[in-house]
Amino acid sequence: MEEIRILIADDEEEIRGLLKKYLEREHYKIDEAIDGAEALKLYNQNRYQLVLLDLMMPSIDGIEVCRKIREKSNIPIMMLTAKDDEIDKILGLSIGADDYITKPFSIHEVVARVKACLRRFIVLGSDGHGQEESVLTFNHIKIDMKKIQVLVKGEEVTLTGKEFELLKFFATHPQQVFTKTQIFRNVWDSNYIEDDNTVMVHIRKLRMKIEEDPSNPKVIQTVWGIGYKFTGDIHES
């Protein structure tokens, strides 16, 4: 089995040391970066399965680092920040972060969420060896579970790992209505924080990529007062 390598980027030595100590106990290989510039340098030199990014760092902030990584990869990115500003959170999620943890945090919660994020990423087949072999089609959308590939009108669209998980969850439960809490618990696999904005931001981003008219969504529909549902019949092949 391939060694799991994690990059921790945070300008606080104490935070990096704490995260490294507990994650190494889980047998992960840990690299550390003291700022955004070093984080990008290490990322370009090595192969990582997850990145933990502090939002506010010298030279290059976590938002810009996240944006540059997303240009190349859909690996899980977890943002760490001392700020509890909702705008910052939405900004981080909107550019592709998979999770958002506010300092001070419980180290055991962080470890649990890292493990859950890695588990989903590996099961989805980040190395091209996913467990699913079926292809689901619906109108103009084709979802290849094995290749982790989505085609819209025959053209491949690039989804982050979390966006693909969200689409997969909806597509494998057509016509079922889910609350934001149910979606969060199933897709984020976490009982620690139920966050409506996390779900809404990711659904909005997903609609921008798969809907013919995102302002009038036909695939992922809002059920007012309840939540969302994936409409139509999925055909498995």
UniProtKB/TrEMBL annotation:
<dbReference type="InterPro" id="IPR011006">
    <property type="entry name" value="CheY-like_superfamily"/>
</dbReference>
<keyword id="KW-0597">Phosphoprotein</keyword>
<feature type="domain" description="Response regulatory">
    <location>
        <begin position="5"/>
        <end position="118"/>
    </location>
</feature>
<protein>
    <submittedName>
        <fullName>Response regulator transcription factor</fullName>
    </submittedName>
</protein>
<keyword id="KW-0805">Transcription regulation</keyword>
<feature type="DNA-binding region" description="OmpR/PhoB-type">
    <location>
        <begin position="133"/>
        <end position="232"/>
    </location>
</feature>
<dbReference type="InterPro" id="IPR039420">
    <property type="entry name" value="WalR-like"/>
</dbReference>
<keyword id="KW-0238">DNA-binding</keyword>
<dbReference type="InterPro" id="IPR036388">
    <property type="entry name" value="WH-like_DNA-bd_sf"/>
</dbReference>
<dbReference type="Pfam" id="PF00486">
    <property type="entry name" value="Trans_reg_C"/>
</dbReference>
<keyword id="KW-0902">Two-component regulatory system</keyword>
<dbReference type="InterPro" id="IPR001867">
    <property type="entry name" value="OmpR/PhoB-type_DNA-bd"/>
</dbReference>
<feature type="modified residue" description="4-aspartylphosphate">
    <location>
        <position position="54"/>
    </location>
</feature>
<dbReference type="Pfam" id="PF00072">
    <property type="entry name" value="Response_reg"/>
</dbReference>
<dbReference type="InterPro" id="IPR001789">
    <property type="entry name" value="Sig_transdc_resp-reg_receiver"/>
</dbReference>
<keyword id="KW-0804">Transcription</keyword>
<feature type="domain" description="OmpR/PhoB-type">
    <location>
        <begin position="133"/>
        <end position="232"/>
    </location>
</feature>
